[in-house]
Amino acid sequence: MEAEAASRVISRMKARLDLGPDDVGIAPLGGVDQPQGAQVLLAGRFREARLDEIRSIIERDGGEIVADLDEGRTKPRIASTPATAQGRSLWNGPPHLAKG
């Protein structure tokens, strides 16, 4: 999908759906050094009940859904470390092996 079409899709989604400011975005497909007019990737976090409507909005502008992932499966595993004030675990780097 081209950037202009992706921007139209995002505008339609924000007008019709209850999306937060960080729930949908676009990025260059393949890297930031792509030429003007290169394809982009549209990614978002959507309520499952609205997926048919979202699919329709995306396909209307020539886009296609290449992955439909449950966000719970994409999050990294959380190690048993102390939690922060937001309830998230802290990552302390890779494990250290004791020599001995």
What does this structure look like?
The structure is a single chain. By secondary structure, this protein is an alpha+beta fold. It has helices at about 5-15, 50-60, 70-75; strands spanning about 25-30, 40-45. The protein contains three helices and two strands; from the N terminus they run H-E-E-H-H. Strands 1-2 form a two-stranded antiparallel ribbon. Helix 1 (about 5-15) runs antiparallel to helix 2 (about 50-60). The model has no long low-confidence stretch (mean pLDDT about 75).
List keywords for this structure.
100 residues, alpha+beta, globular
Q: Beta-strand level of the residues, as a percent range?
A: 5-15%
- The backbone outline, from C-alpha atoms, is globular
Distance between the termini: 56 Å
Low-confidence stretches: none
Reading the helices and strands in chain order gives: HEEHH
Helix percentage: 25-40%
Total E-strand runs = 2
Question: Whole-number average pLDDT?
Answer: 74
Spatial strand sequence of the major β-sheet: 1-2
The major sheet is characterized as: 2 strands, antiparallel
The count of helical stretches stands at: 3
Backbone CA Rg? 19 Å
Main structural class: alpha+beta
